[in-house]
Amino acid sequence: MPTVKAYAAPSATGELISTTIERRDVGPHDVLIDIKFAGICHSDIHTVRGDWGPQQYPLAPGHEIAGIVSEVGSDVTRHKVGDRVGVGCMVNSCGECANCDAGEEQYCLKGNTGTYGAMDRDGTITQGGYSSHVVVTENFVVNIPDALELDVAAPLLCAGITTFSPLHHWGAGPGKNVAVVGLGGLGHMAVKIAHAMGATVTVLSQSLKKQEDGLRLGADHYYATSDQNTFTDLAGSFDLIINTVSAVIDINAFLQLLKLDGALVSVGAPAEPLPVQAFSLIGARRTFAGSSIGGIKETQEMLDFCAEHGIGAEIEVIPASKINDAYERVLASDVRYRFVIDTATL
Ligand code: NAP
Ligand code: ZN
């Protein structure tokens, strides 16, 4: 079993530290990836801090992985040495249930295997992308098109697919009014992708301090949710609202912004409940929904879509020694718009 460099959390409260972790030997269907960049997702912070439940430590997070294939198993057909590839939030699923059959492995009826902090097939706990190398079964490895640099592609593996999937599913496109709540890692990808799909895009941010950026990224309109006039001015305006906020927000206030038959889709995953009044839905046949990342086929479609439209993430590349500072800045909504770790600095 190869031992590789990583950054890992020693506990729910301790800072991440430089360490080593074990990777499994490359099996017949496995791909060994030399990781070049790993994005920092707010889910990494929720997970290592135990927001979503207890974890086993040390835990190396990271599910926005971009790198180069450096070895393939004897039966691998989808990838070869030298390929530019990505790995997102899951590294396996049962492959047999109705949802896996439908290409929706993220909704595997037996539970998908998360890229970190999950029980792997061999009974070990998976370790994520804040690391120099990872071994992944070939079906969960996607190709990064040549038109995308690896650093700006890394965040697409979670932030990109998590916003692309509901935008696509709920029909964002020409003639549709789409609002994005929260302009962070997921939010800025939602703006870029919804704009490229042809929708009219409005950002609903806590303040106007990122307005210039939002409009540059592709938003048509930008409002501050700290201003109560926003909720009266925009009442009944949107076909689709994508909520990317990592904390609890007043969902009922946002539901009032939907048109008849509009949908509010929460991809943000705070630890606490998001209470909904029945009348917020009944009043205009509205839907309150959730969405989890996207399937592997859809992830490849998203990468191809982004390459075609020249869409990468807006990133701040950091050395591994700055991971803990980056966590604090993400928690303070001080990110423009994704931190990406240069794994050469591990
Ligand atoms: P992020 O970069 O921290 O962005 C979240 C944004 O939410 C912030 O930039 C901020 O935007 C806004 N926000 C933060 N705290 C707020 C508060 N108290 N009230 C109102 N707005 C607030 O996080 P991210 O990486 O995009 O992740 C966002 C959420 O999605 C997290 O909960 C993460 O776990 C979840 N997630 C879900 C999936 C999925 O499959 N469903 C996948 C990945 C991530 P403004 O400054 O513009 O207001
Ligand atoms: Zn993520």
Automatic annotation (TrEMBL):
Taxonomy, superkingdom: Bacteria
Cofactor(s) in the UniProt record: Zn(2+)
Known catalytic reactions: a primary alcohol + NADP(+) = an aldehyde + NADPH + H(+)
GO MF terms, alphabetically ordered: alcohol dehydrogenase (NADP+) activity; zinc ion binding
InterPro entries membership: ADH-like_C, ADH-like_N, ADH_Zn_CS, CAD-like, ER, GroES-like_sf, NAD(P)-bd_dom_sf
All copies of domain Enoyl reductase (ER), residue ranges: 14-341
Enzyme class, UniProt record, top EC level: oxidoreductase
Enzyme Commission number(s) from the entry: 1.1.1.2
Keyword tags: Metal-binding, Oxidoreductase, Zinc
Pfam family, one: ADH_zinc_N
CDD domains: CAD1
Similarity comment: family membership: Belongs to the zinc-containing alcohol dehydrogenase family.
Protein name: alcohol dehydrogenase (NADP(+))
Species for this entry: Arthrobacter alpinus
